[in-house]
Design brief:
transmembrane, mainly alpha
Amino acid sequence: WFGILGIIGGEVGNLIAYGYAPAAIVTPIGSIGVVTNVLITTWVLKEPLTILNIFGVLCVVAGIVIVVLFAPKAVITFSSRTVWNDVIFTRHFGIYLAVLAGSLMIMIPVSRKYGKKSVLIYIIMCAIIASLTIVCAKSFSTLLISSAENGIGTELLSPWPYIFLIVMVITAVLSMGYVNKAMMIFDNSQVVPTYFSLFTTASVGAVGWVYHEFD
């Protein structure tokens, strides 16, 4: 329960951060969990620490530094009144949803058949679904921050924040289900780095595309 409360607190902080900074900065920094995971799995779970593990951690840290240094500085802003035209009813969002749906149609049968054979399968499923979680988190957090700065009535009387919140929670639960499936079969030292790598790539790519963060 201590751990679960810590996770919830950390994710609330993450959620708020999406309202103030580009996802290309917020999401990669979360990958620092790979470093702590290596320490925990080595000292607590007694999993072996290899040279490859150490090299991977160094690559993760270097990647975080590079992504953050070259991330976009601008934050895309919108309101409940403009979210339909600025986010939902756009070519970028339509293409993203098409890619998301197509990827799921391919990966769902693949995961049922090969999920227990490779750590990548369940984690790819998680990353695909979690990309939608981050897209919704970015939208919800932006509207929440706007409401805090401009008055509750400006955003919270609209259905959009609640729609984004519901989709965010549902997709987060679904994606974590696939991570748990992978953890029941494979070592944490395999699952966690793979998860953070694919999750970060999918999330930054999705949010960067939908919200034009790399324009």
